[in-house]
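Ticket #4471: structure output looks truncated?

Reporter: J.K.
Steps to reproduce: submitted the chain below (143 residues) through the standard prediction queue, then opened the result file.
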Amino acid sequence: MLKTINKVNTIYLKSTKERLIPLFINCIIITLILIRVLTPNEIIELYYFFLGILCSTLSCFIMAIFKVKASIHMIAASGFFMFAVAIGIHFKININGTIALMMIILGAIATSRLHLKAHTNQELIIGLFTGLFPQLVLMNYWL
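Returned output as attached by the reporter:
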């Protein structure tokens, strides 16, 4: 949609300036989900997962303002990875196979982003920690 109204040049969002509008829209959508759909009284795990997504997205938005590019693919995958680990701990279930598979998927995502020359090693590492850190911090509130 943003490409058709000439707000971005390509769907790949190569510059940090092109990332601002989609990240801002994503922040609004996640905020609406937190306000309207998920409340902390119903499914506390999902509420804090989406709150972590919002924190990661806001962090990526702020980095884009300061011309720092982070891999949004790695942010999403590492955030979900940390949430899955927390769910395994919370419900006391063995998800070692799932964790191993998710580590392989994280490596595949990073390798594909490097192979396509979409990101540098630094951008992938920034994305990894931007996804992991909010989920790790918010885990203390529901675990």
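Triage note (M.O.): checked the attachment and the full token line is present. The chain has five helices and no strands.
Status: closed, working as intended.
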